[in-house]
Input
Amino acid sequence: MDSFIIRGGARLKGKIEISGSKNSALPILAVGLMTDEKVTLHGVPRLSDIDSMLKLVGELGCHVYRHEPRTKTVGDGPDLNGPLDLELRDEKTSEARYDIVKTMRASICVLGPLLAKRGRAIVSIPGGCAIGDRPVDLHTRGLEKLGAEFRYENGNIVGSVPKGRLKGTRMYLGGAQGPTVLGTINVMCAAALAEGETVLVGAACEPEVTDCGNLLNKMGAKITGHGSPEIRIEGVDKLHGAEHRIIPDRIECGTFMIAAAISNGELELKNCNLDHLIAVVDRLEEVGVKIERQNGTIFVNASRRINPIEMTTQPYPGFPTDIQAQLMAYLAIGDGMSVITERIFPDRFLHVGELNRMGARIRKEGPTAIVHGVQQLQGAAVMASDLRASAALVLAALAAKGTTRIDRVYHIDRGYEKIEQKLAAVGADIERVKGERAVA
Ligand code: EPZ
Output
């Protein structure tokens, strides 16, 4: 298992290119299962979670082909990762095996597409994960309202469509913690091929839902209102091929905004959509960070004083839970007491203990963390526990005095493309050490 060694104190300065969104790309790869024609995607990041999803759609019959990197602007623009083609070639296997699902919960995204196109699906039940209990009841409930039936057998969800085709209806999709992002996408996908009209009330409004709806419309779906709490879907008989560019990763962008701020640096972030980060900009400006936008580029400058703030994570357009840990790392070196409340995943605080090992003073009370700012964090040996908690540790290490070793960085590799290369290119002192040397 690899580790990062980070010597803190460098001021980051320079340009970073933001990658395509992981959380948009993952469900969109499952959309490739909904048509017999070719779907070409640009901006799919190279990440271990993407590799897992490609393996899964491959097992479900999609031929996957990654083209050579495209550096010049042709047609749909440059694509440094190479465009990716998905082409469904056979529908014999409709099972998402435990081996894949256990590594990546987003595997559940194949459920709606498979039921809509093939009328059958077996998906291993995703278990709990480091950020808390993550049920999929809203996914199955929404699909049941469209006419799917489920039984639970040997750890699997076994789905079928007894009437042959799903049927549109009006439904409420929200749950106790608010809307569900992947649940909305799953049901929206299924409804795109259902008979008649579906109205999803209480839908998630995240940009990743909008991106998926936009691709489906390019493929011939009739979806309106995606990006709002009420989505209308007029089902069609068939979807065709399409070409699509994945939106920029708003979580990666927010993480690098905080990297600029916490290192007292100055970063130019390219390929961003600041509209997707409005609540993050609001909170960072309150802390004192200076943020400017020019077209698709964001300029971030740290401030000398880090004002304490209150922040609560909320569904979009509120502050994203996926940037809660990173903001906490920043506020840990603030000038007073900040209060962070987690409303999406109330147990998503595994980073608190590790940040405290680095000298932070953070106390957790239920779904709230009280952060008493300290003057300086210190380097320490810490452990990555989940993707965003790991990103918070990287940020803390950039600001800390001395050397930090972060073990188990495979968590980071799930969601941040070439993070150490991107940070090193703007002046961070960060090194990846491989396997045995890392744990020695
Ligand atoms: C997506 O997960 C993201 N994952 C998560 O990003 C993100 O934290 C989350 O949305 C919230 O923004 C991907 O896009 C691959 P939810 P998702 O369903 O869709 C409860 C990251 O770090 N709920 O919107 O699975 C749930 O427990 C990751 O990149 C139910 O009760 O999250 C939570 O409290 C991690 N029943 C709330 O809803 C359900 O059936 C919102 O979760 C589904 C969800």
User: Anything to note?
Assistant: The two ends are 11 Å apart (CA to CA). Residues 23, 26, 106, 131, 134-139, 175, 177, 180-183, 204, 208, 320-322, 344-345, 387-388, 415 surround EPZ (CB under 6 Å). The chain has a mean pLDDT of 94. The first strand starts at residue 3 and ends at 7.
